[in-house]
Write a structure and sequence with these properties.
Length: 137
């Protein structure tokens, strides 16, 4: 990940030899950006860094969940999801795959359930937000 090059952890031991706070050596440009962003948000640089790391970890967990959901799709569900993510209607998907629109609806319902989203638009937004663009290939 990009931050691994910029942040080099230097763990310090706290009381009784247990890990304490993590200290990082920051690239000068990144350090300046963090100070400006923290000032704009009226919070400490440490709080901003903690918030950003928490958001990054949460995003990574969501991306991993989406990858698991993708791997759980059947071949036909992948085809339906790929076309849906490209913006095709159920009718267009049915025609492209030579199946009924009811079958498309069933596959879409399964896909949406596996991703825990409510619509094709939600599915596309989730995948785009997480940087997963498997339907474009």
């Amino acid at each position: 990940m990009w931050f691994r090059r910029l942040l080099r952890p230097r763990p310090q031991l706290g009381r009784r030899g247990r890990p304490g706070r993590l200290n990082f050596e920051l690239d000068a440009a990144l350090s300046a950006q963090l100070r400006l962003a923290a000032r704009a948000r009226q919070q400490s640089t440490e709080r901003l860094i903690a918030d950003l790391l928490a958001q990054g970890l949460e995003r990574e967990a969501l991306r991993q969940q989406a990858e698991v959901a993708l791997s759980a799709l059947t071949e036909r569900e992948q085809e339906v999801a790929r076309l849906a993510a490209r913006g095709h209607t159920n009718r267009q998907i049915a025609e492209a795959l030579f199946i009924s629109t009811e079958t498309v609806k069933t596959h879409m319902r399964n896909v949406l359930d596996k991703f825990e989203v409510h619509s094709k638009a939600d599915l596309r937004l989730l995948l785009l937000d997480l940087g997963i663009r498997w339907w474009q290939g």
